[in-house]
Amino acid sequence: MKPRLLFATGNAGKLRELRVLVGDAVEVVSLKDLPPVPEPEEDGATFEANAVKKARAYSEATGLPALADDSGLCVDALDGRPGVLSARYAPGDDRARYEKLLAELAGVPDEKRTASFRCALALVTGKGEPRVEVGRCEGLILHAPKGTNGFGYDPVFQVEGEGGRSMAELAPEEKARVSHRARAFQLMRRHLLAL
């Protein structure tokens, strides 16, 4: 019988990415496949701390090995903000958050608009210490949004090495190749296949 792994997400896109990565070697279930479990508060100071906290809480609640992620955007000119607060950077929707970011960067020259998307993945199996891997995607913050794909800060993040395109201008398969989450998944793959 193949091992089961809980991926602590309700995001169908993330779930699909993980299932492709592990293939038939692991049975991946999501939070939607299980009875409701209390959601842990994301109050860590780092992406890694939040991912470990979520993976540990869901593993303990379900008895399954659990994988959890925490991710966000870190802008160098803003001392790493929005960072772990990326999803809560401004009230409202994604547009409100990236508009706040653009307002804070008004007047900042292109060469100082460097940023990175970061994704921390944590695996808790109940045996030993959590495994943590971090993927990064480097780029720049644009002066105005471009593109209609993706979500979050994608329209204002110009991906390094992608011809000046924003993350929101990349096709889904291109994003899956270069994103911070894809890179973290690749780093975590060996741990998942060893379950």
TrEMBL record:
Mg(2+) binds at residues 41, 70. One of its GO terms (cellular component) is cytosol. Transmembrane segments: none annotated. Substrate binds at residues 9-14, 71, 151-154, 175, 180-181. GO terms for biological process: nucleotide metabolic process; purine nucleoside triphosphate catabolic process. The active site is at residue 70. InterPro entries: dITP/XTP_pyrophosphatase, ITPase-like_fam, RdgB/HAM1. It catalyses: ITP + H2O = IMP + diphosphate + H(+); dITP + H2O = dIMP + diphosphate + H(+); XTP + H2O = XMP + diphosphate + H(+). Binds 1 Mg(2+) ion per subunit. Keywords: Hydrolase, Magnesium, Metal-binding, Nucleotide metabolism, Nucleotide-binding. One of its GO terms (molecular function) is ribonucleoside triphosphate phosphatase activity. Its cofactor is Mg(2+). Its EC number is 3.6.1.66. Pyrophosphatase that catalyzes the hydrolysis of nucleoside triphosphates to their monophosphate derivatives, with a high preference for the non-canonical purine nucleotides XTP (xanthosine triphosphate), dITP (deoxyinosine triphosphate) and ITP. Seems to function as a house-cleaning enzyme that removes non-canonical purine nucleotides from the nucleotide pool, thus preventing their incorporation into DNA/RNA and avoiding chromosomal lesions. Belongs to the HAM1 NTPase family. Homodimer. This is dITP/XTP pyrophosphatase.
